[in-house]
Design goal:
alpha/beta; two-stranded antiparallel ribbon; 11 strands
Length: 187
């Protein structure tokens, strides 16, 4: 679909009571990339999957970068607002509750930016291979927003012995977290 400001896919829920998933692909992915992952992590949950609008060497991304690991912060800010507006429009168009972001790499980075710049847009976030996109000022209170970080390096949350690619351990931890999220955080 191309309406609502982003090319995207929407998969309606087949099981009531699960939080909808906002699927945010990594560099070079598209709106189809994380659909099989979402079906595995939270079978029956509604899925909304936008395609990043920025192209880097022909590969879709959600925001520009100046070099590997160096983000274009002005573009990130503008793209974060644009994505937040899309989420609001998609919730209205499809009758969705506040979604849980499932982001990989570049998608996880923009989800982190949404958490920091537009609190209240996401019900929670599963961030896989995320980098802190910027030092937030001011820092918003996110204590009521559950977040799971899955990283291939040592972090204070779950450490997975992996590189940048996702592993079965990532998927098991993510499914476990989403299962607990659905039971504890839906109202």
């Amino acid at each position: 679909m191309t309406d609502l400001g982003f090319i995207h896919r929407f998969v309606p829920a087949t099981r009531p009571g699960l939080p909808p998933l906002l699927l945010l692909h990594g560099t070079g992915g598209d709106e189809n990339d994380l659909l099989p992952l979402a079906a595995q992590l939270s079978p029956g949950a509604a899925q909304i999957a936008p395609r990043g609008k920025v192209l880097e060497n022909g590969m879709p991304r959600f925001f520009r970068r100046l070099a590997e690991g160096v983000f274009d912060l002005a573009d990130l800010k503008a793209r974060t607002a644009e994505l937040a507006d899309f989420i609001t429009a998609a919730r209205t168009a499809y009758g969705l509750a506040m979604p849980v972001a499932v982001g990989f790499s570049n998608g996880a980075n923009i989800a982190a930016s949404l958490l920091l710049m537009r609190p209240g847009t996401l019900a929670g976030a599963l961030l896989m291979r995320v980098m802190l996109p910027f030092e937030p000022q001011p820092l918003h209170d996110l204590s009521a927003t559950p977040v799971l970080l899955l990283s291939g390096a040592a972090v204070s949350h779950e450490v997975v012995p992996a590189g940048h690619n996702l592993t079965q351990r990532d998927l098991a931890l993510a499914a476990q977290w989403l299962g607990a999220f659905g039971l504890e955080h839906l109202q």
